[in-house]
Design goal:
The protein is mostly helical. 53% of the residues lie in helices and 10% in strands. It is built from seven helices and five strands; from the N terminus they run αβααββαββααα. The strands form two sheets. It has a three-stranded antiparallel β-sheet with strand order 1-5-4, covered by helices on one side. A hairpin with a 2-residue loop joins strand 2 and strand 3.
């Protein structure tokens, strides 16, 4: 048989609609650093986002024109007024500097529970830019460090490998990770203080009712 299987997902759309969908998803990704969509849409948008960042690292007139043709530059998009071509300066400055030493893997797709549980149960995912302020794996690694440092066993080998992964290409990655760990440790202590204070209030005696017993769930 002539030809062969196309090496991309059609997403149940014709070509023009598919391209418009992917352009919209990528523009939202570069605006918010992280988006939530279906798994198949995220994987296809990831390919286009990686190409855009490669164009940003080249930083030539041809790559600028190509990137300009991909981004949606509507004055009003997603209910928010935006400056025309606001994504181009960010792509060729902030993101280019962020990924200048990274050989690849500028985005990450993380599976999550289906968003439409009552309808099609479509597999969902989060598409995010790595080494950014919304890097979920970075925050999850910091949270794991807080939990494991509080145990007698200490930090596990797999966690140590994850620490190297999330800090390898991030500018000041080790220092940023330690700041995040300290912030989470403080948050955990504050939550513990509030929880203990709440139980003390619940167990305190009420005026005119004698000593109050600890809260007990009543049988219905």
């Amino acid at each position: 048989m002539a030809g062969g299987a196309l090496k991309y997902r059609h997403l149940s759309r014709k070509s023009s609609h598919r391209q418009a969908l992917l352009r919209n998803l990528v523009t939202s990704l570069f605006t918010h650093e992280s988006i939530t969509t279906t798994w198949h849409k995220a994987k296809e948008a990831q390919r286009l986002a990686e190409k855009l960042i490669t164009l940003g690292k080249k930083n030539t007139n041809a790559s600028r024109r190509r990137a300009e043709s991909i981004f949606y530059n509507h004055t009003l998009m997603m209910g928010e007024f935006q400056e025309p071509l606001q994504h181009l300066p960010r792509l060729f400055t902030t993101l280019r500097d962020r990924y200048l030493n990274r050989p690849g893997g500028y985005t990450r797709v993380l599976r999550i529970e289906p968003l439409n549980k009552h309808y099609d149960q479509a597999p969902s995912a989060i598409l995010e830019l790595v080494d950014g302020p919304k890097d979920m794996r970075f925050h999850m690694t910091a949270k794991t460090l807080v939990r494991e440092r509080a145990t007698e066993e200490g930090v596990r080998e797999i966690t140590a490998r994850n620490v190297k992964k999330v800090t390898r290409y991030r500018d000041g990655g080790v220092e940023e990770l330690e700041k995040e760990v300290k912030r989470m440790e403080k948050k955990t202590r504050d939550e513990g203080f509030r929880e203990r204070a709440r139980w003390k209030v619940d167990e305190a005696p009420r005026e005119g009712h004698g000593e109050r017993q600890p809260w007990v769930r009543m049988k219905s």
